[in-house]
């Protein structure tokens, strides 16, 4: 089953890349007209997906970078965050499935549930008004920050040893992963939520990595293809950050065994709350 998932991930990655390239070529004038510095976006992409490989939400870090720089409008932020992440996620998934042991049936079930959730919501997201997207993103950032903070303060158990789920715990995990897949399309990352779920259900914390990477790769690919179809994303930012992000993923996989993720988690908590509060302040100032 694990080999089958790896094959699916690779096929999805190649198919997605071809589909995306066709869209980029058809809108190359828009790509060239974007004023953002290619080098600056590339460096940001390396940082975003290096941290993402270590378990720090790329949605959160990207939002913290793209919002103040105004590289991406709020309306196109959910699509951009999803589209740019697919290829790095596929690379992460292949890396983590090979080094972290997880029950194959549990892995397939949780990843499949997240894909179902992702397929159910993007057509709704592209029609949401900008104010609603800001509210959802701010709420998601605060929620992710609370989960990470709770895990760091040991309010959420993180000492499980199981590598698989059965019965009602598997059902709960699948339902939650489906919800997280839907939230991805609103620009709310699933890393912190998946990690908290893994902790709460008694799994080994390391099991979160292949689950959240594989789930993100396939669910985000499903949702992103629809964002690409509607053209509801920033093409240059997403493409440059995604390709540069592959370098960040490679560096992150090398550093994974030696990096102190706890330090990064404390930093990202600050980033999450700072970005969310800024969005909420902006909403309050522009209240109709």
TrEMBL record:
Keywords: Membrane, Transmembrane, Transmembrane helix
Membrane-spanning intervals of the chain: 41-67, 79-99, 105-126, 133-150, 207-230, 237-257, 263-283
Superkingdom, natural source: Bacteria
The protein's name: UPF0721 transmembrane protein
Species this protein is from: Furfurilactobacillus curtus
């Amino acid at each position: 089953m694990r080999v089958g998932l790896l094959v699916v991930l690779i096929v999805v990655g190649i198919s997605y890349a071809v589909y995306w390239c066709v869209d980029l070529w058809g809108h190359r004038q828009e790509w060239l007209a974007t004023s953002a510095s290619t080098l600056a976006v590339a460096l940001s992409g390396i940082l975003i997906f290096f941290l993402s490989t270590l378990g720090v939400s790329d949605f959160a870090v990207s939002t913290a970078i793209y919002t103040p720089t105004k590289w991406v409008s709020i309306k196109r932020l959910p699509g951009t965050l999803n589209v740019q992440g697919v290829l790095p996620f596929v690379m992460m998934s292949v890396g983590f499935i090979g080094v972290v042991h997880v029950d194959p049936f549990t892995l397939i079930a949780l990843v499949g549930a997240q894909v179902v959730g992702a397929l159910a919501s993007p057509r709704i997201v592209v029609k949401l008004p900008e104010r609603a997207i800001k509210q959802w993103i701010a709420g998601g950032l605060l929620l992710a920050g609370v989960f990470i903070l709770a895990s760091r303060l040991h309010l959420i158990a993180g000492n499980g040893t199981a590598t698989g789920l059965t019965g009602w715990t598997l059902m709960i995990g699948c339902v939650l992963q489906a919800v997280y897949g839907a939230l991805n399309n609103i620009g709310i990352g699933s890393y912190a939520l998946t990690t908290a779920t893994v902790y709460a259900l008694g799994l080994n914390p390391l099991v979160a990595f292949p689950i959240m990477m594989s789930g993100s790769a396939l669910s985000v690919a499903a949702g992103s293809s629809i964002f690409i179809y509607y053209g509801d994303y920033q093409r240059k930012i997403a493409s440059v950050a995604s390709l540069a992000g592959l370098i960040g993923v490679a560096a992150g996989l090398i550093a994974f065994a030696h990096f102190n993720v706890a330090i990064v988690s404390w930093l990202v908590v600050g980033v999450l709350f700072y970005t969310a509060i800024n969005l909420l302040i902006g909403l309050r100032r522009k209240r109709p």
